[in-house]
Amino acid sequence: MEIKINAKLEFMLLIVFLSEKKNEGSLDNTVNNYTEKLEQRFGSLRNHPAITGYPRMYDLDFCWQGLVETVLYLDDDFRLKPEAFKDEELKSMYENSLPELNAYLELVRELYDKTEFQQFITEQESVYQELINSIRSTIEEKPLNNILEAYLGVKQPKQRFVLSLLHKAFMGLTHYEDGEVETVFVISRMLLEKAMQYNYFRRNVIACFWHEFSHPVINPYTDTLFDNNHDMNDEQCTWYCKVNESIIEGICLRLMVRENVLNPENVELDITNSMRNGAPKIRECADLLLEKYENNRDKYPNIGAFYPEFLPIFGERPNK
After folding, report:
1. What are phi and psi of 229, to 5 degrees?
2. How far apart are alpha carbons 157 and 212 in whole angstroms?
3. 182 pairs with which residues across the strands?
4. If the chain, 320 residues long, is cut into consecutive pieces of 10 residues, what is the mean pLDDT of each piece?
5. Are 160 and 72 in contact (CB under 8 A)?
6. 3-class secondary structure, 186
7. Which DSSP category does 181 fall into?
């Protein structure tokens, strides 16, 4: 399996890091070897139009997940590939701000070439090769994908692994490339280094693999509960995230227990952490999976057939 650092993604995150929006994105803002290196090498670029102009692009929704998804659709000239316009998650942003986005990306490309950033990332791949090897060996230690497919009863799409040196969260997203659907797993250097520091690296990698590759399976079922899942109010978004995160964390908990990744004495701590991180009904979902799903796979051959059983846990779906 291949785990790569995406130079264009890291460059766009560097622009955010150097901009006025540094503290409003999902970035590693701690002082560490990598962020100090960025400051020393690129800090003098703060007055470049690609950086001073980023707050305007932030206001046009070129931020957070939309930024990551968009950058993955850029060709070598920083132009959007045709597949980008098939992505429903990005449709409204492109409809509202495509001319400005294209003009802005020309500035980004000019700065990218000027800084020889691709060469810099090639250097960093050597620096972080040991971390990449540790991720790969952990993922290959168990047949994680086969275990997840068997539990969900669903075949996974093509998978891609991206190590991000600056993104502070793990992220899984659906991507379209060459007529194929693939799931991209963005892996956070910051979180993995923290996991190494506190000796839960293996558990963290495995849990995040199962979590992120469950999203493309579970989210579409929740999408169908809304007339337009891309036009939800704040209350609906909160409910939507609570449902998805609780179900997925329940699945991960059950898999970690079944596969002896999580020691029984750490189950309660794991539940507490999951509740704190946006999965308030993890316990109820895990209990339901154990009591009803796992023992009745003839009735529930896949998680889609079982999905309606979760909904009473969350109460009535909010309306507009």
Report:
1. -70, -5
2. 13
3. 158, 175
4. 95 97 89 96 97 96 94 96 90 91 98 97 97 97 97 95 96 90 95 94 97 95 89 93 98 98 94 97 98 97 98 91
5. no
6. strand
7. E
